[in-house]
């Protein structure tokens, strides 16, 4: 009997949840490319404003007004011990802000995603799909 399965693999599809309501928001596929970690939105579960068809209307970079579905929200994190981290690597498409960040596995099915602005941070927990 094998207990390893997805053991300690950060790659895969993760479900994101609203911090305030706990409502399922999206699925993000996390993958490695050239030794760095990326995450893109592969499914949206909640679309509050159908008039903008789920675009990143507050983004200020190349993602401005682009569809959130298929968008990179985690870009080029590098491994540092058990964590992956980077400067300006996490995007919140709801407010268009990018954050310094780090991600790590809490356990095989729970991922911590922490974004920083200076000394202030917010941590979300994503669940493996």
UniProtKB/TrEMBL annotation:
Species of origin: Brumimicrobium oceani
Gene3D superfamilies (alphabetical): 2.40.128.520
Ranges for domain DUF2147: 12-128
Taxonomic path: Bacteria, Pseudomonadati, Bacteroidota, Flavobacteriia, Flavobacteriales
InterPro entries, per database record: DUF2147
UniProt cross-references to PANTHER family, sorted A to Z: BLL5882 PROTEIN, BLR1215 PROTEIN
Protein name per UniProt: DUF2147 domain-containing protein
Family annotation (Pfam families): DUF2147
